[in-house]
Amino acid sequence: MQRCWRCLGASPCPRFLRPWRASNEAPFPSLSSVADHHLRAFVGRLRNAAITDGRTVTAASAGKDRLLALDPDHISGKEVRDTLSKAPAPHIVSLHGGLYPANYLTMTSFAEFLISMGYPEARIRRSDGVLDSLYSYSPYQDSREVAGLIAWYYERDGLRPMMVGHSQGGVQAVKILYDLAGASGADIHIWNPVADVAEDRTTIMDPLTGVERPVVGMTVPYVSAVGAGGAALLLPNQWSMVHRLRTIPDSVEDFTGFTISVDLVAMDFPGARGASEFHHNGKAQVRNVVLPSGYNHAFVPVTRELAANKAMRHWLNAYVPDGKGQTETLPPGPNDNALWAADVWFSIKKHWCIEVQRLIRAKRALVAAQ
Q1: Is 336 helix (H, G, I), strand (E, B) or coil?
Q2: Which residues have CB under 8 Å from 145's CB, separation 6+?
Q3: What are the pLDDT digits (tens) for 239-286?
Q4: Could you name the CATH architecture of 90-369?
Q5: Where do the structural domains in the chain lie, given as residue ranges?
Q6: How would DSSP label each residue in 87-155?
Q7: What is the pTM of this model?
């Protein structure tokens, strides 16, 4: 019997029991059986019964209540370790730069940073079994394929994926947002990241509503881009982004654009700050963060060693964007790229929490409606 690598349950996971739905088959249940299965597995791992007013609360209810009680904007390292790390997690789609050394090697370091901070390794690793770029996708891959795999992951997990892009990968991340917004056509095929092939369908069954919906029109919760633009826009595969890169469509809820104060590769300079800023064209929340000029364009994601320092991990978990005096409290020792890592980690924790809470509330609403 195959066992699910995420829930370690004794019973077979639904994702091993059914083939992917053809477009003319019966729809899924109102809440994805796979997502529901993994949520039950999560609360099954929280076996400590809670006592409230003299009554024993079931482990399942206690586990879900603990998740719902989390404040997404203030998640401590202990809460990551004791609660979030045991919950289902959205897949992180990382997009690396196109040229050495700003390629998959730097994003591998970032992935290892996230794993050390408590993010599940299986939710960062690519699903297609590649042997080199284990944790990130190439900016030369068809952006519509990545848009299709984002829909695939959401249908399977009930949790919307996030994207983190570096250098040309940052351009690619925004390009994918435009694909999801319909800029490249009304139909995008589902891309199966395990088999690494397109499926013969352009819709999914929304796991939270049970309603069939197209890939185009989907939104993702969080996307960040660092060092995007400049030389990358000279490449033919990114020409379509020359006039679009800095304008963020509504296919993302929370976007953070990072620029380095002086970045010769991305062509960001203090006197041209306005031209480097991202802005929305609708309702997306867009933040612009300027990193110190000492940051190196190619090596911003190299953050593995930050998580090895206990004091630094505490600082990273306590970080809040735009908080005053935080740079003055950086612990002694190496802190290269700490501001970028802290800001991205804050947003990943936040949207991890929000996505799981969204799944729990959808499940409870479904039960209440029955």
Answers
A1: coil
A2: 191, 198
A3: 999 999 999 999 999 999 999 998 888 788 665 566 789 999 999 999
A4: 3-Layer(aba) Sandwich (3.40)
A5: 90-369
A6: S--PPEEEE--SSTTSSHHHHHHHHHHHHHHT--GGGTS-SS--SS-SSEE-TTS-HHHHHHHHHHHHH
A7: 0.84
